[in-house]
Amino acid sequence: MKIDLQQVEEAAKQLYIRAVKLLPPDIKRGFAGLDASESDPTAKRILGTMIANIKVAEETDNLLCQDTGIPIYNVVIGRSVEVDGAGLKAAIREGCARATREHPLRSSVVHPVTRKNEHTSCGRGVPVIHFDFSDDAERLSIEMVPKGSGSENNSWLRMAIPAEGVDAIKTFVIDCVLAAGGKTCPPTIVGVGVGGTADLCVHLAKVAATRPLGSRCTDREGAKLEKALGQAVNTLGVGPQGLGGDSTAFAVHVETAATHITMNPVAVNMQCHSARRARATFSPQGIEYGY
Amino acid sequence: MAHHDFTMPVSEAQVRALRINDTVTLNGTLYGIRDATQIHMFDRGRKTRFDLNGHAVIHTAPNVRKIEKSPANPSGYASVCIGTTTSDRMERFTRPLMAQCGVRMIIGKGGLREDSSAAFGALGGVYLAIIGGTAALETTWVEAIEDVDLDDLNPESLWKFRVRGFGPLLVAMDSHGGSLYDTVNAAAQARRAAALASLGIK
Questions:
Q1: For a Cys-Cys bond, which of A77, A193, B54, B188 suits A204, CB 3.0-4.6 Å?
Q2: Domains in chain A, start-ordered, CATH in brackets?
């Protein structure tokens, strides 16, 4: 299957616009679940407003949140896909800039030193583009995640040591949720990276934070951790928007990687309640949009 | 837990009457302000031609569309999506906003800290919590972008919005030392040991 880069550019544009407007069904179900079990009246009112906002965004064809985020594109390339990789990167970048100019969307991206905004949502190294490969022969998928800054500003890495054991990981997650309070726009998906190198650990936390609700870590030890931590964080009472209540997090997601004999790294990255993502899948049948 | 409908601007007495858990709905003028706006105003000495005295500011940087200036769109901008951002980053600007510009209400999400609380007490101000991430809804409360200043900082310009039925917003920090964030954070910290114990940590 040969990939037409013009179609990639168009998809990269459409994906950004779709992502900021349409919340994935798993997140909507997550809201329904929290709303059903929330016992605090203020928290229940806040959840109700968040749920109403999802409907208003759909009805008015508007953005869910004003934060257009840092654009991230995750590309997965199947075995029989023929594509010019450098051209693919350029096409995604141009599609991202076109979404920003043509919709228009707020460009939330600036140079880190001069703070200059090019009003394209692009800059050095941004959009962030990740590549992976799959056995799924005739398929190329592009996932777009507009990562909001309220949650991204609350990101942590701790290079714990082996003698601190798994308790260091658990304690760190609880303390990060407490430190974040209402700043991350809870209820959140708490993404936890365990193991790897420092940079891989932080990347795993981001993968975990942006995984669909209801998915489980494929490592049994990670799955055990996410279940226990998910229950524990919702006993803290931080609540929606940090104003109290049971609904601090939709879930805790964990991703793991092997690490060094001397290392025990843990990272936390959170996704806010506007847990947006969109996906385009290219196949011989055409391009299909989803989540 | 009273509800207050305000047409802006407001007096010090009106603001001092507010208590945490009250709710407020705003009408008339609302100013939008952000990190860069305040860095330029208070660290780099830039002045605005707007009179913020007695007014409310919302921590925001909106999505806008450039359009032809007209009586309905006097600023040359139409709103696309207007919401809020995390207030905590702008903690150190609360006091100069109040002392130098006369601002009485700050709207945002996630709350502010001790110095803001002290400034609210000393100068007469409140923090109103709006729900972050619900901008589609909040945009329907904004009638027009009336004017804009410091627009070289776009989207972090100083925006002048005309709003109707902007709320209800929750009084989360008042001029009497009350802060819902302090209460919730203290309670959450008190539950830390039990949460760790539930994870098998002694």
A1: A193
A2: 5-20+64-148+275-290 (3.30.1330), 150-271 (no CATH)
Residues on chain A touching B85 (C-beta within 8 angstroms): 66-67, 149-150
Any A CB within 8 A of B129 CB = yes
Report the residue of A17, A40, A66 to disrupt the B interface, i.e. the one with the largest count of B CBs within 10 Å. Answer: A66
- The half-sphere exposure of B173 on its side-chain side, counting CA atoms within 13 A, is 28
**Nearest-CA distance from B185 to chain A in Å?**
7
Radius of gyration for chain A, computed over Cα atoms and rounded to the nearest angstrom: 19
Domains in chain B, number: 1
Does the beta carbon of B88 lie under 8 angstroms from any beta carbon of chain A?
Answer: yes
Taking chain A (291 residues) in runs of 10, the rounded mean pLDDT of each run is: 97 98 98 98 97 98 98 98 97 98 98 97 98 95 97 97 98 98 97 98 98 98 98 98 98 98 98 98 98 97
Which CATH number fits the domain that encloses residue B168? Answer: 3.20.130.10
Residue A126: helix, strand or coil by DSSP?
strand
How far, in Å, CA of A147 to CA of A162, rounded?
Answer: 32
Q: What is the span of the domain harbouring residue B142?
A: 3-198
